[in-house]
Amino acid sequence: MADDNFSSLFDLLPIGAYRSMPDGRQLRANAALVKLNGYSSEAEMLLAVNTIGAEWYVEAGRHDEFMRLVQTQSFVSDFISEIYQHNSPKPIWVREHAHAVRDTSGNIAYYEGTVEDISAERAAQQEIATSERRFRAMTEKAQVVTVICTREGIITYASPACQSTLGVEPHGLIGTLIFDWVHPDDLAKGESEFALVVAGTNSGAETVSRFRHSDGSWRHLSAVGNSALADDAVRGVILNFRDVTDARRAEERLTILATIDMLTALKNRSAFEAAAIAELEVVRGTPGRCAALYFIDLDRFKLINDSVGHAIGDRVLREIGRRLNHSAPPRATVGRLGGDEFAMLLPCGDTPSEPELIAAGIVAALSAPMQIGDMAFTVTASVGVCVFPDHADSFELMLRYADLAMLDAKSTRRDAFRVFHSSLAVVAQDRLSLVEELREALLLGQLEVFYQPQVSLVDAELMGLEALVRWRHPTRGLIAPDTFISLAEDVGLISAIGEIVAERAVSDMARWQIAYGRPLTLALNVSAMQLRDATFIEQLSDILRRHDFPAQSLELEITESALVASLDLAPGVLRALHRLGARVVLDDLGVAYSSFAYLKQFQVHGVKLDRGFVDGVPGDATDSAIVRAIISLARSLKLRVVAEGIEHAEQRMYLIDQGCAEGQGFLFSKPLPWASIDALFAAPSHVIGQRVLLLPNR
């Protein structure tokens, strides 16, 4: 949507405008810029300039100077250069303005800028030094407003162009003070520049001031002055004015686009950060004052985009932005940081509990039902609060701590807020340490594969093994996956872990099948990031081929949340798995999104009953009803059902009565290391072709 707004403004600009990549490659050029450069189309110009690169400038090194300024200062203003035109032997002079647009990580995403032909202005300046006759002949036909003033600023001559520019006939200006037409806010600048012109010490550069039009509006006029007080033919100060109102408004619009989030009309990330830092400096200079930063993250917003589309999602974000802006106290600074993340900075009042009251108000305001078209939504948010200077003494640290508090609120319960406390920083530091140790664990081979048997509930016959990763840490001991799997997903290590587990598990199962003749099923867990990994299918196929393990004996357990997180790619990945011959089991059915539609949409082969439901049977009526419904639905769809987390005989018997044939849990066996499974198969009592029975762990 931001690009649409940019394109509309882009095409309407009367001066040249462009967008380019950080490496200098041009992405867009509007019609005015194409014409200025002498090309017939944007495509022709982009092809040419991306080929010749810096040769656009006449002066050597000018391109490097431009890039140095925009990269170090993030903007360039009034950059005047002589350039070559396409198919023209004569160079022209241009003025450039540009700024860098940064992404949510603070990196330069692209540059936007304007290019204006100022050759006429420079020519006019040269002509000013000629005779009065030539001067009058030029000014009376030009669109440039020319006036001659006394050294005090009294206008003695005004060119006809003043009527079209300011709506005033020339005689209406003569005898008036030039400064009477200038906007009060620009008066000091105008008087100062005029004094330099009178003294002959001005630089010759243009200055822009607002002049009153006869209709009461203000026009932006760019002025160049030249003293001819010593010239007997003139005896005055010559001022040339050019109407740059449209260009200035376009520049102001570009400035707004660079600071406003076009979807919600709130401040964008960079503008919010700048405003917040400025506000913190004010608070810092007032003893005893404080300010609170509220980091706001919508709960499960991706589900809206994936289920009803980004157009509806954008409308939801607009409504969230409207609610935040409407409910924010008068002195609050509100911004959208990107995606479904928002922030608000507010100076604290005299009540110590005010930050908590504000946070609770944000949660309540955002969670109220909203109507988008004919659809109703309830969107909740998790909010983290950090107080300056109690918790942090810089905006950067406040943002990080507020983010940690938000994550704490989201991990405990959604639709809630948390105020930062020091233990969260300790947790964050431990998390960083664990990430580095996990990276090292991958290199040192510290990850191991354990196997939990899946059995027939009726007679405990071994039906398959679920591969589960464990981390044998040199000092922390054996670490369960709950401690590091989500961390691995956050930092992009889950695909590497998944490949390690698949390699070892397939290798073990292939060897056991050859050695003991047991055609068992191997169950592997697959994360959302693996589904989105373009190499996932190829890696899995290669592992199966190298170990000569039949894909028909492989089951991939995928959670609902993983499928939802990859709705755009999941159908294609699952079709590829079907072609490979592997089976797909929907894990934790009903826990994440409670949408049985995925059973049909993704054509899965089986489902797993989550331990959270199994734990409540047969005593809990709600859990029992859910279990009965899932088993009944799965049986009607001819899907395999495996119950997990079975720990008591009563649970086993209830599941059997409801028609669930297979399960796993501590009632039969805990996850076992490779050696224990190998010993199970190698037991003297085992005969190829006979059932392998597991005794309950006592």
What are its keywords?
698 residues; 8-stranded mixed β-barrel; 5-stranded antiparallel beta sheet
Task: Provide structural commentary.
The structure is a single chain. The protein has 698 residues and is an alpha+beta fold. The strands form five sheets. The chain has an eight-stranded mixed beta barrel with strand order 18-19-21-22-23-24-25-26. A five-stranded antiparallel beta sheet has the order 2-1-5-4-3, with helices on both faces. A hairpin with a 5-residue loop joins strand 18 (447-456) and strand 19. Helix 12 (301-308) runs antiparallel to helix 13 (310-327) and helix 18 (494-516) runs parallel beside helix 20 (536-546). The longest helix is centred in the middle third of the chain and has 23 residues, at 422-444. It starts with a helix and ends in a 17-residue tail after the last helix.
In short:
With 698 residues, this protein is an alpha+beta fold. Helix content is 43%, strand content 24%.
Helix content: 40-55%
**Proportion in β-strands:** 15-25%
| Main sheet specs | 8 strands, mixed, barrel
Radius of gyration: 36 Å
Low-confidence stretches: 686-691
Shape: elongated
How far apart are the first and last residues' alpha carbons, in Å? 62 Å
Please count the beta strands (DSSP E, at least 2 residues each): 27
Counting helices, strands and paired strands, the structural category is alpha+beta
Total count of helical runs of at least 4 residues: 27
The spatial strand order of the largest sheet comes to 18-19-21-22-23-24-25-26
